[in-house]
Specification:
With about 150 residues, the chain is mainly alpha-helical. About 75% of the residues lie in helices and about 0% in strands. The protein contains five helices and no strands. The longest helix has about 30 residues. The protein is globular and about 45 Å long.
Length: about 150
């Protein structure tokens, strides 16, 4: 149980970090005047940070597999990160951080239920259930409620 609690905390801390990242990126965007340039800077810093962690040996080093050894879609997850960053940078000044992140989480929950229930993209298949659908519905209701000012 303790390990699961630690994992929950680590993931929640990552979510909090994303919110802070978006606030910092929103300020950077005000300086650059461009959501795309801001994303390029942010992703460059991300890449540098990851390269330092990788070079330190703190995690398994791994190796780059041949392109044809994986499904083509497996190589393109970064496209969604770029979209997310640019969309969030455009939306946060207009909607606020709470509204944007509630919508992000709502979208993630709907997509996660679809992936889980279908097993798409080799995700472990977990059938739809009333509690899972209800939980996702409550997240979406929360996102809608956070839209009011």
């Amino acid at each position: 149980m303790f390990n699961r609690f630690v994992l929950f905390f680590v993931v929640a801390l990552g979510g909090a970090g994303l919110t802070i990242q978006m606030a910092w990126n929103a300020r950077l965007r005000a300086g650059t005047g461009s959501p795309v340039l801001t994303t390029i800077i942010s992703v460059s810093i991300t890449l540098l940070s990851l390269a330092l962690v990788w070079a330190s040996g703190a995690t398994d080093r791994g190796s780059i597999p041949p392109f044809h050894s994986l499904p083509k879609w497996a190589w393109f997850g970064g496209v969604f990160a770029a979209y997310y960053l640019v969309a969030s940078l455009i939306a946060i000044p207009k909607l606020g951080a709470a509204a944007v992140f509630s919508l992000v989480i709502g979208g993630q929950m709907v997509a996660a239920l679809i992936l889980d229930s279908t097993g798409a993209f080799e995700v472990a298949q977990i059938p739809l259930s009333t509690p899972r659908v209800l939980g996702t519905g409550l997240v979406i209701i929360g996102a809608i409620l956070l839209q009011s000012r």
